[in-house]
Amino acid sequence: MMKFFATFLGAGAVCLATTIAAGAEPLRDAVRHALSTNPALKARSAEMRATAYELMQLKGEFQPLVEVFGDIGRQDVRDPSSLAVNESGITKTRSQIGVRTSLVIFDGFRRANRVYADAARLDASIFNLLDASETMALNATEAYIDVYRHQALLEVARRNVAKHIQIGRQVRDLVEAGRLPFSDELTIDDRIGAARLAELEIQRAVRDAVSRYERVIGRKPSGNMALTNPKLPHSADELVQTAIANSYRVKRMQAQMDQIRANGDSVLASRSPRVTLEAGAIAGENRNGSFGDREDTFAGVSINWTIYKGGRKDERNALAQRSYAAAFERDAAARDVREMADLAWTSLATNTERLAQLRRQLDVNRTLVDVYGEEFEAAKRSLLDLLEVERARFNVEFEAVSAEASLAFSRYRVLAAQSRLAAHFGVAASDMALEPGFHDKARRQTNSVFNIAIEPLE
C-alpha cells in the first residue's frame, strides 16, 4: 500500500541515518532485553538444564546400589527330609529384614557409552539454545530497524504533506492573480488529499511495526535510537568459511551424530558380560519353615551374559544407517549455512550498490525540483510538470530510506550468518548457556563430565 502512495506523491524526505525517532531505545539494549526475557528462549534454556540434570543422574550408574528389603507373613513349608517333624507342615509367622548392596564392575562400557550419548545430547541442547539465540537476536534487530525505518518514512510523508500545502498556497495566489486556471487549484487539492492519505497509511504501518517490536523484544520502544556499522568480513569466501566453522546449527548436528554413535555403542555393549559385586545381610524369624531366629551374610561376584539373541545383525545394520543419516544431516546443515552466508553477502553487496545509485539519483531529482520550481515561478513549466518532478523525488527518497534500512539489516544478517550477532551486542555464549564440550570431556574422563555448575533458576 505504501508503494502505491509513493508512486503518486512527491515531496522532500529525510535520510534514515540522520533520523532520530522518538520512542525508541538503542539497538544493543533492545536485543539484550529480547534475549533475556523471550519466553521461547527461556523454554529452550529450561530444556537445556533438564538435559544437564539427566546427564548428572547417570553418575548413579557408577556408584553402589544399596537396597533394604523385608517381609512378614504366614508360611507353611512341607519338607520332611530337611525339617523336623514339629516344623514340617506347620503354619508359622515368618518375617525377615535385610540389606543388599551391588556394584557393577564391568558391563562392556555400556554405562560409559550412555554417558557419552547424554553428554553429546547436552551439547546438542546447548548449541540449539545458542542457535535460537542468534535467530532471536536477528529477529529483534529486524523489528528494531523496521520501527526505525517506519519512523523515517513517516517523517518523509509529513514533509510531503507540508511541501504540497506550500505549493497549494502558491497555486492559490497565482489563481487569484489570474495566472493559473482554477483547475490547477483543484489539482493541487487532490494531491494534498492523497499526501494526507499516504501519511495516514504510514502511521498505521508504524503502529504495526511497534506492535511487532513489542512482541519480539518484550517491551515498547523507549529512549534514543541509533544504528552502528559492525565489522564485517572482507570477502564472501571469508564469510562462508567463518559461518561454517562457527555455525551453532552445524555443531548441533555434529553433537547429535555423536549421540547416535554413542547410543549405538551402548547397545552393542549389552552383548558383553555384566559382572557385579554383591554383598548383603539378612536377619529373620521362622525362615524357610524352621522355628527360631536366623542371620545370613553374603558377598560375592555375579555374572550375566546373553550368549545369543536373534536379530543382532539387523540391529547392527540399523545402528549403522542411523549413523549415516546423522552424518548426512550434518553435511546438509553445512550446505544450508553456506547458502545462507552466500545470500547474506549478496544482499549486502546489492543493497550497498542500490543505495549508492539511489543517492546519486536523488541528487539529480533534487536539482530537477529546484529548476522546475524556478521555471514554474517564471511560468515556463506547468503545475503538472512541477508535481511530476516532486513525485519522482519523493519516490527516490522514499525508496532510499527503505534501501538504507535494508543495508543496515544486511550488515547484521552477515553477523548472524557467522553466529556472532548476539556477541556483537555484548551477549556472550556463556551468558546464554552452559559451556559446550561435554562429549569431549566424557571421552577424556567420564567422571569429569559430572562436574556441572548449574545456576539456580531466577
Fold and architecture overview:
- The longest helix is centred in the N-terminal third of the chain and has 67 residues, at 110-176.
- α7 (248-269) runs antiparallel to α8 and α8 packs antiparallel against α9.
- It contains twelve helices and four strands, in the order αααββααααββααααα.
- The chain has helices spanning 2-8, 27-37, 39-57, 110-176, 182-217, 236-246, 248-269, 312-377, 383-417, 421-424, 429-432, 438-444, and strands at 65-76, 91-106, 274-285, 293-304.
- Mean pLDDT is 86; it is low at 1-23.
- A hairpin with a 7-residue loop joins β3 and β4 (293-304).
- The protein is elongated, with a radius of gyration of 38 Å.
- It has one domain: Outer membrane efflux proteins (OEP).
- The chain is of the alpha+beta class and 458 residues long.
- Strands 1-2-3-4 form a four-stranded antiparallel sheet, with no helix packed on it.
Quick summary of this structure?
The chain is of the alpha+beta class. It contains 12 helices and 4 strands.
CATH architecture: Up-down Bundle
Amount of beta strand: 5-15%
Number of helices: 12
Reported by name, the CATH topology is Outer membrane efflux proteins (OEP)
Helix-strand sequence: HHHEEHHHHEEHHHHH
Number of domains as seen in the coordinates: 1
Number of strands: 4
Features:
about 65% helix; single chain; alpha+beta; Outer membrane efflux proteins (OEP); about 450 residues; 4 strands
Layout of helices and strands, plus pairs?
Blueprint: H1 2-8, H2 27-37, H3 39-57, E1 65-76, E2 91-106, H4 110-176, H5 182-217, H6 236-246, H7 248-269, E3 274-285, E4 293-304, H8 312-377, H9 383-417, H10 421-424, H11 429-432, H12 438-444
Antiparallel strand pairs: 1-2, 2-3, 3-4
